[in-house]
Amino acid sequence: MAAAAAAAAAATRLLRLAPRRLPSPKTCPFSALPLRPPAPLAATSRWRRFCAAAQDSAPAPPKTPASAEAAGETVGEFRRRTRVADVKGGGDEGAAWVGRQLAVRGWVRTCRAQRTVTFVEVNDGSCLSNMQCVLTPDTEGYDQIDSITTGASVLVEGVIASSQGGKQKVELKVSKITMIGESDPTSFPIQKKRASREFLRTVAHLRPRTNTFGAMARVRNALAYATHKFFQDNGFVWVSSPIITASDCEGAGEQFYVTTLLSNSAEGGCLVNNIPSTKDGRVDWSQDFFCKPAFLTVSGQLNGETYASALSDIYTFGPTFRAENSNTSRHLAEFWMIEPELAFADLNDDMACASSYLQYVVKYILENCKEDMDFFNTWIEKGIIDRLNDVVEKNFVHLSYSDAVELLVGSKKKFEFPVKWGLDLQSEHERYITEVAFGGRPVIIRDYPKEIKAFYMRQNDDGKTVAAMDLLVPRVGELIGGSQREERLDYLEARLDELNLNKDSYWWYLDLRRFGSVPHAGFGLGFERLVQFVTGIDNIRDVIPFPRVPGSAEF
Amino acid sequence: MAAAAAAAAAATRLLRLAPRRLPSPKTCPFSALPLRPPAPLAATSRWRRFCAAAQDSAPAPPKTPASAEAAGETVGEFRRRTRVADVKGGGDEGAAWVGRQLAVRGWVRTCRAQRTVTFVEVNDGSCLSNMQCVLTPDTEGYDQIDSITTGASVLVEGVIASSQGGKQKVELKVSKITMIGESDPTSFPIQKKRASREFLRTVAHLRPRTNTFGAMARVRNALAYATHKFFQDNGFVWVSSPIITASDCEGAGEQFYVTTLLSNSAEGGCLVNNIPSTKDGRVDWSQDFFCKPAFLTVSGQLNGETYASALSDIYTFGPTFRAENSNTSRHLAEFWMIEPELAFADLNDDMACASSYLQYVVKYILENCKEDMDFFNTWIEKGIIDRLNDVVEKNFVHLSYSDAVELLVGSKKKFEFPVKWGLDLQSEHERYITEVAFGGRPVIIRDYPKEIKAFYMRQNDDGKTVAAMDLLVPRVGELIGGSQREERLDYLEARLDELNLNKDSYWWYLDLRRFGSVPHAGFGLGFERLVQFVTGIDNIRDVIPFPRVPGSAEF
User: Fold this and answer.
1) What backbone torsions phi and psi does residue B162 show, to the nearest 5 degrees?
2) Going by C-beta distance under 8 Å and a sequence separation of 6 or more, which residues neighbour residue B18?
3) Closest Cα in chain B, distance from residue A239 (Å)
4) CA angle, corner B316, sides to B312 and B320, nearest 5?
5) pTM for this entry
6) B414 interaction partners in chain A (CB closer than 8 Å)
7) Residues facing residue B132 across a β-bridge
8) Do the chains contact at B242 and A323, CB–CB below 8 Å?
């Protein structure tokens, strides 16, 4: 204690004696405090949120201000920076800001020079809208006008004024423009002319600077947050299921191996002969990092069940993987899954939870991403907002698999794939049911033949079907798949035997049925499918920042 | 359109004609509606949240009730289930519930038979507290008393009464107990006697049923949600950075390979001779899934910078990996990272953001996880609540690396590792600074020698240091590491050359400096370190559900 006190004293002394040697914090010219926003908006805008957070979290003054001062510098408040969304995001589209000073930092989308004025559209990513900035030859920094090109980053300062153009309510009369980072107009890949989605995938590091991908990123973010809000508000606990798994519970056919055996120990790449092997020439897994074969997870469900069997209701939200050689617009090798698991619940509870969840998150983005959704409605898929409103407002249809088969057979429609009890429903069937037969309403189909469903699903009393459900939506088809889990040890073991699965591998999963087993149910939702459904974006590679598909893991 | 209408009519007809064939939903006996909670608590308890959500999200009545009825069954409301936390979580510890009926579903923690009554402690995972259930020989189901053992799952119904014991305010006078799932007392691994943490790792599927791991899971969940809340409230966009990466941007030494080349094509395991190879005997990556070597990510930062260069402020929250052979209590092969990235920001902004973040999440769990935190304060680390209150209330110290070195040298303390300008600070040094020199206050050290920091950190004007910062906290040491990024293309390229790194691999990262470069900064936080810091749990393997470490990826 004495030593500690002495050291503290020494530290204090050091700092008190040598304040000159402490570097004064360098101020970045581009992060200086912005001008204050008008009072009426302050309460609802994003502005001051950080400060509010800081105040919330430190309501009491520091208990030792004197020593704190003496002991060194303390961290100041987080920067207060006004964003375009703060100005234009309100219902009045910025009208309340007219006459106020503002500094905007962002990237130039377009620059149109007219005889006496130049219009520069600046976007800071906080919303779809640009800030239209009006420059005249009197504007400070106007001599740099030639470098104000698409893609450049700038700081513009001026006064908000009513806009005479019809496209926006307000614009910024610029008194000063500062070039932050130039963008060579001959080499910047994303020029004003519309670039194809295929091309934009080759510049995935720059595509968030386009309207479509900026809007996608914001809606994707809102969907993720709404997911957390929904489950948290309902008492579910987020559980991080493992990404690397060495259990044999899932078929390894479509799994990626995770290994350190292929490390480039030799110059020029890993020599096959250097890979540790057993006497009979097989890969010696005992020398791998985990001492056995390890894979990337295809689902967190089995792990999730363990926590549901202790905490009652849990959900996972994490990446999952398929080493499937599917080069389609519907498949990714790496995608995010949401997998809730409910204890003391049956299939009806599961269906109700899935429906409530979907309605909640769709309503959330309709209310919180209006501008971006208007963009998708206009440019990506006309009528998508109406379709989503239907999802929120209409009850979901549900019917049994048997009835679905009867409906399809009775439709007399020619399908590519056969329809027959016992065969799985294909995408064309699912889309027919939700899009045509029920006119765009989401449909839940339940009680599928056990042969086409997973081993862990609970057998129904008929001995032929299991308590499984798929939630279908228009255009996407299956969005959610779930089931009540088989909680009866004898049924589960018998099913594993029937399928020639090794019971020993499932020892811990079976333990859940040995010790305090409870009826439970859950579902899985491919997050990217949800983003597709909500935005109308066709290709799944365009609803995730950096898609991983066969032959490509760029960036 | 005519075809669609006809099909819809056919579908409706089918269902109208055949309502008998639609299976009526089977009701799970354990998920039936519970008894209503007392009115005073309803507004603040978790009860009805689901229903509230459902109502929120579907305020308008279905527009086509008639056809909805005709078209099939619709999904009902999500189950309303009262949890122990709903009863005991309020400030009155359940006093308002006295006299009310209640059904509790959960797992038996202990069962103590006395002469006339039997006390059964039931936990449902919603909170640390058990519901003490009082059984008498008159209780329906009392004949099953011998199977009411630790680990079994039960449904208990009865009336809430004031408890005469001092340990709880209320208890449940049980009128009926129903066995859901038995638990063989001779084989259930977690008996009442305290099991060691080491042992519990071998039953990671059951350990959430203990007090420590239940509390850990709830606090971990709260920290994750608080993280999202903080960044969302401040306008940051969550970006899912890729897990699989084929870019050479990070040193591959400590990375896991992700491959499909080792698939078990042969019976009995992968034959080394079957691994595709080039003429000179090296692994032929062109035949791998991604047509080149692919790895598990060690950081999402570089990808995060691309989105910050479009959306301004973003954060990642996802798993990251290290194939490091470190069998310590501080290292995991798979862990979760939070990496915000701020555009138009310098190191001071970064430090302020890190401080605000940390104070926010710590305050959040102190306010929202009181019971669990009391448990940690009593059983895991005495005084931890005071220590965390200090973090919330006191300003953080910050000083330069140079001053930190001077402080350590001046301390005259004998350290295991040498202290000298240019050498990295070791854990013992960091802990001395935060624990001893500044008496438990978090400390931010900034401006480190460039030789010991990463290539992307922004060079300071002195030419010797970079704008890096580490946030140190007592006991854990470095919790957060961040920096301002080098946004000047010429500086960054020169640094890559100095370090003999291949500029071509970084083409897209350099593009961010070519096209509209902006000053930006960010930090990384190991989520499990944060959970350790907040709970006081020593070993990092005990703050993640299923730890992955060298030699073990069980469950």
Assistant:
1) -65, 140
2) A403, A406
3) 7
4) 145
5) 0.88
6) none
7) B121
8) no
A106 interfacial to chain B (CB closer than 8 Å): yes
Q: What is the β-pairing status of strands B131-135 and B101-113? A: unpaired
How many Å apart are CA A529 and CA A485, to the nearest integer?
24
Contact B225, A239 (CB under 8 A): no
Smallest CA–CA distance, residue B161 to chain A, in Å, is: 24
pLDDT per residue of chain B (555 residues) written in tens, 0 to 9? 444 444 444 444 343 333 333 333 344 334 433 333 333 333 333 322 332 232 333 333 333 333 333 333 333 456 668 899 999 988 889 999 999 999 999 999 999 999 899 999 999 999 999 999 999 999 999 999 999 999 999 999 999 999 987 889 999 999 999 999 999 999 999 986 778 999 999 999 999 999 999 999 999 999 999 999 999 999 999 999 999 998 766 554 689 999 999 987 667 788 999 999 999 999 999 999 999 999 999 999 999 999 999 999 999 999 999 999 989 999 999 999 999 999 999 999 999 999 999 999 999 999 999 999 999 999 999 999 999 999 999 889 999 999 999 999 999 999 999 999 999 999 999 999 999 999 889 999 999 999 999 999 999 999 999 999 999 999 888 999 999 999 999 999 999 999 999 899 999 999 999 999 999 999 999 999 999 999 999 999 999 999 999 999 999
Under an 8 A CB cutoff, do A234 and B53 touch?
yes
The phi-psi region of residue B48 (left if phi > 0; otherwise alpha if psi is between -120 and 50; otherwise beta) is left
**Nearest-by-Cβ selection for A311 from B217, B272, B398:** B217
Does residue A409 belong to the interface with chain B, where contact is any CB pair within 8 Å? no
Indicate the SS3 state at residue B89: coil
Asked if B30 and A415 touch (Cβ cutoff 8 Å), the reply is: no
| Closest residue in chain A to residue B261, using alpha carbons only | A257
Sheet holding A520-526, edge to edge: A237-238, A313-321, A334-343, A520-526, A477-484, A465-473, A443-449, A397-400, B73-74
A512 CB neighbours in chain B (<8 A) are 205
Query: What tokens appear for A110 in the block?
Result: 């377009």
Q: How far apart are CA B485 and CA B473, in angstroms?
A: 24
Q: Determine the length of chain B.
A: 555
Residues of B in contact with A325 (CB under 8 A): 289
Instruction: Confirm if B223 and B185 have CB atoms less than 8 A apart.
Output: no
Question: Strand B443-449 relative to strand B397-400: parallel, antiparallel, unpaired?
Answer: parallel
Torsion sign, CA atoms A547, A548, A550, A552: positive
Q: Which of A206, A252, A436 sits opposite B264 (nearest CB)?
A: A252
Closest-CA residue of B relative to A61 is B393
The HSE-up count of residue A321 (CA atoms within 13 Å, CB side) is: 25
Distance of residue B401 Cα from the nearest chain A Cα, in angstroms: 10
Cβ under 8 Å to A: B residues 484-523: 484, 487, 508-509, 511-519
